[in-house]
Amino acid sequence: MLGAVFARFVEKSPISVMVRASLERVLGADRLDLWYERTAQKQYTRDLLFSSVYDLMNQVVFCVQPSVRAAYQAHQNEVGTSLVSVYNKLNGLETHTAAELVRYSAREFAPLIKHMGGDRVPWLEGYRVKIVDGNCLEASEHRMKERREATGRALPGKSLVVYEPALGVVTAVFPCEHGQAQERSLFGAVLETVKAGELWIEGRHFCTRAVLWAIDQRGAFCGTREPQGLPLELLTPLRSYGRTPTGQVAQQCVCVVDAHGHTHIFRRLRIKLHEATRDGATMIHLLTNVPRLTTA
Questions:
Q1: Quick check: pTM over 0.85?
Q2: In this structure, how many other beta carbons lie within 10 angstroms of the beta carbon of residue 180?
Q3: DSSP secondary-structure letter at 127?
Q4: In whole angstroms, what is the distance from residue 213 CA to residue 207 CA?
Q5: How far is CA 82 from CA 20, 67, 75, 87, in A?
Q6: What is the share, in percent, of the chain residues with pLDDT greater than 70?
Q7: CA-CA 20 to 30 A from 108: which of 67, 180, 258, 267?
Q8: Which residues, other chains included, contact 12 with Cβ-Cβ below 8 Å and sequence gap of 6+?
Q9: What are the φ and ψ backbone dihedral angles of 171, each rounded to 5 degrees?
Q10: Other beta carbons within 10 Å of 58
C-alpha cells in the first residue's frame, strides 16, 4: 500500500517528492544531531536535541507559528523538555554553530541542486560569482514598545552574507554579536575564503585598497562600486564603449597601490545612468580586474 501511495506522489508531484527527500537527507533529525555533536565548540547535548530546536525555529521562520513559545506549545510532547530549557539552548547557541550550519547546508545541497538540474545559467561564463552584503539581525519589533526608540537600547547583531546566484542559495554567513561593529571590520574573515577564479561582487563600503589587493593577490576577481576618496592613479583616458540597458559606458585603466607598495591594475568603468539611483546619483564608477570581454 505504501509503495502504491508513494508511486502516486512521484507520478503526480515529482518535484515535491525530490525536495522532501533532499531535505530529509541533509536536514533530517539524525543527520543534524550528529553534525551538531561534531561542530559545537562549547555547547553540548543533555536532554534537548539540536534537531528539536531547529524544528521549532523552522516553524517560526516560515510563519507556521508566531513565536518560539507557540511552536513549543504545539509540539511540547515531541520536545520533551521545558520551555525554559528551549530558551536556554537558543540563548547559548554559538555564532560558530550558526555559520557552520549555513556552510554545511550549502555544501550538501549544491551537488543535489546540480544533479536535479536546478542550477542557473552563470552570470559570467567561466567565473564562480559570489555576492557579499551586510545584514542587520533586526529584532526590535519584539522589544517593549517603550524601548524600541530608546537611544540606549541594545543594538542587534550583524552579519555578512555570501550568496551564489548560480545555485540560488546563501553559501556562507559571517555573524557578529556586537551591534556596534562595522560591517567592514568583518570582511577579513570573508577574504580568508576567497579562492582563485571566483568573482566577488560587493558594495562600495567594502571597497578599500586592502580588499582590492587581497582579492587580486589570491588570483580572484572583483566587481565593486568605487567609493569617494579611494586613492588611485589614472593610467589611460576615458574611452567610450557604447551603451547598456542602464546607461552609457566609458572605461579607463587605473592603478591602486596597496599598503605594501604593490601596484594593482584595474578597469574603471564610468556609467552615465538613464535613471538616477536611490541616492540621486546619475553617474557611477565601477572597479574590476575582470579582463574585458572580446568578441570574435
A1: no
A2: 8
A3: -
A4: 10
A5: 30, 16, 11, 9
A6: 86
A7: 67
A8: none
A9: -105, -10
A10: 13
